[in-house]
Amino acid sequence: MKVVKYFLLLLLLIVIGGALYIATLNGEYQVEESKIIKAPSSLLYKTVNNYKTWEEWGPWMDDSEDMILSYPEKTIGVGASYSWKSEQQGNGEMKTIASIPDKSIDQQISFVTPFGESKSDVYWRFEPIKEEGTKVVWGMKGRQSFMEKVFWITQDSTLTQTVRPMYQEGLEKLALNVQKQMEVYTVNIDGVTEHGGGFYMYSTVATSIAAIPQKSSQMISSIYAYMKMHNIPITGRPFMLYNEFNEGNGTAIISVALPTRDKVVVPIDGNILCDFMEKQKMVKTTLKGNYSNLKTAWEKAIAYIEKNQLEQEELSSPMEIYANNPEEIQNPADWITEIYIPIK
Q: Rounded to two decimals, what is the model's pTM?
């Protein structure tokens, strides 16, 4: 009996000692991963802020075949949430508790465990990095309960070691997801319309086709500055006239322009001139998407002209109107370009 008593006493001492040891362990934890993603902060914020997109890039979605997701009425913004049930991954819920558009999102994640409900604070930070994209920070922090410390001390890895690779995978998938979003484009043939009828300030240059984006951007900036300096009103969106386009030689002569209200008298030998565009019949095509898809849009517009046995007016220049500002609309999938091809 004494042996049993001593054994039980020893066991009690071990349990007490173990409990004291676990109680003294630091239960605070924080795991954080970051990645620079070549995408605007507004698009990344919009994607993360909508829980229904998490099915597409959430790192745990592919790790469980029995996960059932549930969505309430609100899945975007503060107060939004979603929950899941899974025998493999367990049950839980995620809720958005605060956000600053395009800059940060704060969430709370809850897991149902055999020891009760476990909660952690989750945070996202979106920091624009000039010419590189956006630095996305994804982190989680909190404090473990006594029983949670007991659980993790029996595991082969810590909570941080378990979560870190999941966050790394999630950021990789998020990058791929937003890249696909930015590549989306549509081309719509609007048909025959009448366009023109107004004065415009313009500048003309001969250039290689490859250099058109850079040249046109510089020219638009110069015309904007000129019109502002001389108090000339701007009455519409910038556009570009293709005076000549030789794809075989890779060269073009273009005029970049901004509409204005009245005729402006300028020095004849100046770089920026004023002209008038007559109303004329044109085939209109609208591209919604990155400017890299303009070649496809032009090909479809020309195919439409040929299919409908229309004839291009060679004495007038085809044009592109840039219906919104890429500096304001950061997602290339939302850029709008209108193509007008004159016809007889």
A: 0.79
